[in-house]
């Protein structure tokens, strides 16, 4: 795999605890982030807490509640073993075995595996587009200006292609920009414009990438096509929400009407 930053998100340098001499602000922020992500999926767990890098009484109580919810000894301390449990969704997303008969199936199955592990961004220091999922998709970058939809798409294609020993960068450059991928598609003549796609759905295939067009050379959102129907496509996309925003906060499975939207399609066929 080319995009391996997620591995740094799986580790802490030392045991983190209240008044701990080895406490590290970034590691405490990681712990607090995962406590909040756990709370989103388990709202009665009592693990939501501020993300400020300070392992105070509130963080200690959140850790105790996480330990209780997971049947762990209630120490209030976080060692690597407990952190492994906190970060297990990320590890499962990037490291679970993925099967598929071809690259397209591998892409779909990889995307589905990420989706079921609930990737979600956080707001840290008043900055959206932050947290361990965003950093993993964006190679360490995070913050309000770092829209992460293309980072997600490339992480999925990279992970799937690497299973077959392929390098996704032969298809497109490593980038976080929809414009860069759209321009690459035009240069390689593998981008189907929305006007053509509307009249010939056979040109759209599962595993391809949609690009939401603002103007002919400006694209503002992206995702992976998972199914094609008469008027609609099904997708898995990052940095979106129920309304289909290009700056939402989650990975979601969505339905889009490609005959009423300006959706261009980037073909992955040359990588297949």
TrEMBL record:
Task: Tell me where on the tree of life, at the top rank, the source sits.
Answer: Bacteria
Q: Which Gene3D superfamilies match?
A: PGBD-like superfamily/PGBD
Pfam families (UniProt xref): CHAP, PG_binding_1
Q: Could you tell me which residue ranges the Peptidase C51 domain spans?
A: 147-239
Protein name, please?
Answer: Peptidoglycan-binding domain 1 protein
Q: Show where the Peptidoglycan binding-like domain sits.
A: 25-86
Which source organism? Answer: Flavobacterium johnsoniae (strain ATCC 17061 / DSM 2064 / JCM 8514 / BCRC 14874 / CCUG 350202 / NBRC 14942 / NCIMB 11054 / UW101) (Cytophaga johnsonae)
Could you tell me which InterPro entries the record lists for this protein? CHAP_dom, Peptidoglycan-bd-like, PGBD-like_sf, PGBDSf
């Amino acid at each position: 795999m080319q995009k391996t930053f997620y591995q740094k998100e799986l580790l802490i340098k030392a045991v983190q605890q209240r008044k701990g001499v080895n406490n590290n602000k970034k590691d405490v922020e990681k712990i607090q982030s995962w406590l909040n992500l756990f709370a989103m999926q388990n709202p009665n767990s009592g693990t939501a807490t501020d993300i400020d890098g300070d392992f105070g009484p509130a963080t200690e109580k959140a850790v105790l509640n996480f330990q209780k919810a997971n049947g762990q000894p209630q120490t209030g301390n976080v060692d690597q073993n407990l952190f492994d449990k906190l970060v297990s969704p990320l590890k499962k997303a990037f490291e679970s075995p993925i099967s598929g008969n071809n690259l397209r199936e591998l892409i779909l199955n990889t995307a589905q595996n990420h989706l079921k592990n609930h990737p979600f961004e956080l707001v840290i220091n008043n900055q959206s587009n932050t947290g361990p999922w965003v950093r993993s998709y964006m190679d360490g970058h995070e913050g309000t200006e770092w829209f992460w939809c293309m980072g997600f798409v490339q992480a999925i294609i990279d992970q799937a292609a690497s299973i077959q020993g392929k390098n996704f960068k032969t298809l497109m450059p490593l980038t976080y920009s929809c414009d860069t991928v759209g321009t690459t598609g035009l240069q390689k003549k593998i981008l189907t414009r929305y006007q053509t796609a509307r009249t010939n759905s056979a040109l759209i295939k599962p595993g391809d990438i949609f690009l939401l067009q603002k103007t002919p050379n400006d694209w503002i959102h992206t995702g992976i096509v998972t199914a094609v129907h008469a008027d609609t496509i099904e997708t898995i996309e990052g940095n979106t929400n129920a309304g289909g925003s290009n700056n939402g906060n989650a990975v979601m499975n969505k339905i889009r009407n490609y005959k009423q939207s300006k959706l261009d399609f980037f073909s992955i066929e040359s990588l297949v």
